[in-house]
Model the fold of this input.
Amino acid sequence: MSDVPLPVDENSLRIQELAYGLKVRHVMTTKIFAVTRQCTMREVQAIMKSNGVSGVPVVDGGHVLGMVSMHDILNAYELGHLQDGVAKHMSSDVQTLSDEVPLTFAISAFSRYPLRRFPVVNKKNELVGIVTPRNINLALIRELSRQLTEIEEQGTVSAREGESAVYHRVYRLDRYDFEHAGNASAALKRELKQRGISPKIIRRAAIASYELEINIVAHSHGGSFTHFIDGHRVRITANDFGPGISNVEKAMTEGFSTANDWIRSQGFGAGMGLPNAKRVSDEFEIQSGVEMGTMVKSIIYLKEESSHENQ
Amino acid sequence: MRMKEIVEELSAVPLCEPAGWEELGVGSVFASDLISDILVSEGEDQLLLTSLTSPQVVRTAALVGAVAIILVHRRQTPPGLEAAAREQGVPLFRSTITKFEACVRVARLRDSK
Done:
């Protein structure tokens, strides 16, 4: 199932991790050449030619009805049907992406479907952009250079103010690898202890980290797992490439679990993983797309006074 | 309670014995076979009684700072478990007594104090 090969070494994992911070709307092009169903294939072909695009969405009142690709144009041309309306030749089985999903979902989608572009829609299901592999590459390069600048600046600040350095670790986690699961969380705990963080906060970070680490191993096809600590917070991110959670609300309910018997026999699958992780977090975010992946982010503040009230 | 007394009470066999374990003080006991419950258990100087034998149980116990683990109702343990305990420096024991009986005995010991 892992159509998206996960890079093995830490450097490429870091680059891949850039994708998790970005959403599809940060990456898509908003310069859209869309047509209505009254247009002919010839008109679409002219639009493609003069604007250098290879796919044009067909819309009705902002909603995507279909896509016309270069391939559809060629087929119509061969049959001498260029004068036909687009409705006859477009692919009407269109896979769209929501503008709010993480970029990784788009990357998964490209590896899953033999398509070169996806129309992007907003919450009202209206077309707001198009995303292509080229957009993704450009966005990653942009983000990479932005983060490099940020790291350089942080380095200068830390050196000047004597603040503790930024801790950043990325792990690759494999499905059902219970042998190693938990090691990343143990390393996080050691690091926080070394930094003299209060035991209460270490405990909360350990709980969130461990639950999310186990989730990837027990429930996903594999993914990456990141710890980031600066002077103010611990950020834990868990990203996987599927299968995705079909009902996030249910998954956040205590006691709800999809774990199989084997996972349960290992002492997991009590349906407390995500609820526990959320409860101990100061900030918590989860996004999931079926067949695309799940992204969970937990942030825990390091300063006692500003942190969690329930603890 | 001292770990030494509890281990004797349960006729437990040592699997991992970091130096000085005998004198470790146990303030509370948590008995569970669910990792998530162990993870959020909040006792001070806590001893864990469990029949889980995956290396995960050792890692979880280490994460929550448990004093020691006694595997109950177990005659054998899978390879890898002891290594995990050594790696984490967590004292680990095995007893053939059932979890319920182990709880009863530890509770009696506590009440006799």
Observations:
- The CA atoms of residues 55 and 84 of chain B lie 6 Å apart.
